[in-house]
Specification:
With 120 residues, the chain is α/β, with parallel strands linked by helices. The chain has one domain. The chain is built from five helices and five strands; from the N terminus they run αββααβααββ. α3 crosses α5.
Length: 120
């Protein structure tokens, strides 16, 4: 959170993925309260290009990814919470095509990305 608070420009807005807690964020932040933001976006938009475009229109400039939340759901007994093959492909395309890594904490639990125009 320190990196977000001290290094991101004042006009930044951060979408948290697989992380419900936005405690201590001094930048506008959108939590992932039921760890379903990405699945919902994939359902609504259907592809990484649309997700990135809508997020930019909504003013999102950065994405904070929490590994533990993601990993927890990938091992869920209730398979409705696990990313489908199609959703995983959309996540990979979003991550590799639009998310530029800016910061990774020492434990590797969090990655902060900048939401970019297409990277490739």
């Amino acid at each position: 959170m320190e990196y977000i608070n001290t290094r991101l420009p004042a006009g930044s807005t951060v979408q948290f993925l697989w992380e419900p807690r936005t405690y201590y964020s001094q930048r506008p932040a959108r939590p992932d309260p039921i760890l379903g933001v990405f699945k919902h976006e994939a359902f609504l938009r259907g592809n990484a290009d649309e997700i990135a475009g809508v997020w930019r229109e909504q003013g999102i400039t950065h994405v904070l990814f929490w590994h533990a939340g993601f990993d927890f759901l990938q091992r869920a007994a209730d398979r409705r919470f696990v990313l489908s093959g199609e959703e995983a492909a959309i996540w990979d395309r979003l991550r590799n095509g639009y998310l530029l890594p800016l910061y990774r904490d020492d434990q590797g639990a969090y990655i902060l990305y900048e939401l970019s125009t297409p990277l490739s």
